[in-house]
Amino acid sequence: MIEAHDLTYSYYNGLVIRGISLTLAAGDFTAVIGPNGSGKTTLLRLLSGALPPKTGTVLLDGLPLRSVSRRIVARHVAVVPQEVSVPFPFTVRELVEMGRTPHLSGGLWRSIRLADRNAVDEALEATATAALASRPVNELSGGERQRAIMAMALAQHPDYLLLDEPTTHLDIQHQAEVLDLLARLNRERRIAVLATMHDLNLAALYFDRLIMLDQGRIVSSGEPSEVLSEDRVRQVFHASVRVEHHPTTGVPHIVIQPGQAPEPPQ
Question: Is the pTM of this model over 0.70?
């Protein structure tokens, strides 16, 4: 379990995270939603240990995250950021092999063992990127690249998968492919998934639990039907919307009311 207790964090212009507490356990499938600047990405970085909280504590399986080595953390927690820069012409397989680095006592450039090759092969198969293994990463489409990056994360054999806007810049087909993949990994491998999401309808359609942030605080947490009330969406996102029901799943479906945007808050 990842546990966060009363986290705060500030940049030069003030507090970004304000007293957040949450848990992420095996089998959880959770999306963090909220307007731009609400602290979604910062929260993810705190939970992964990339940022130290100003106050509060993050525990990884009961141990303070700050007391655990980065190598050990990386064996349990995999992070998929919004953007991954690949400056060299690595192939997809070479990129995915980098995910085995935390398990190699001599670092990435030590000879990869059979177990590591098997883990890479499994990650490639799980993300449907095996056919792309010899392709340079920088020649892939957006959807292919995102699946390759997810394969690298899966090669770590993580217990927890943290993703920052995994569907950004993807078309509808590739959004569905990525989220279907996450749902399958969560269901079959019990990997705990926490993803920040901009698209409220996709978040409601796929995720079991939503955490809504506003100005660095959790304003609601629970099933999509509990979190995405019409009044709350209007208040937090300052948008004129109507909340209906998805025609096949019954989850909340947000409909924007064109030409009725409210005045921005002062």
Answer: yes
